[in-house]
Amino acid sequence: MKFGVSSEQIEESLNQLFSAIFLEQRKIDQIRPAQEEKKELMHKLIQEYAELKGTALIYDYMASGRGHGPFTELLDGSVKMNLIGSMGVNLLGHSHPLYIKAHLEAATSDTFTCGNLLSYPDALEFSRNLIRAVSGSRLKHFWYACSGSMANDTALKMIWQKMAPKRKIIAFERAFAGRTIAQQNVTHNKAYSEGMPELIDVFHLPYFDLNDPAQATEKTLKTLNELYAKEGDTFAALTIELIQGEAGFIWGTREYYKAIFDWAKSKGILIWVDEIQTFARTENLFAFQMFGLEEYVDVVTIGKALQICGTLYTHEMNPKPGLIGGTFNASLASIKVANKILHFLLEGPFYGKEGRMATLGQEFIKRFAQLKTKKIHTARGIGAMVSFEVGDSSAENTKKFLKRLFENGIIAYSAGKNPTRIRFLLPIALTPEHIENAFVILEKTAEEVL
Ligand SMILES: Cc1ncc(COP(=O)(O)O)c(C=O)c1O
Question: Considering the entire predicted model, what is its pTM?
Answer without folding.
Answer: 0.97
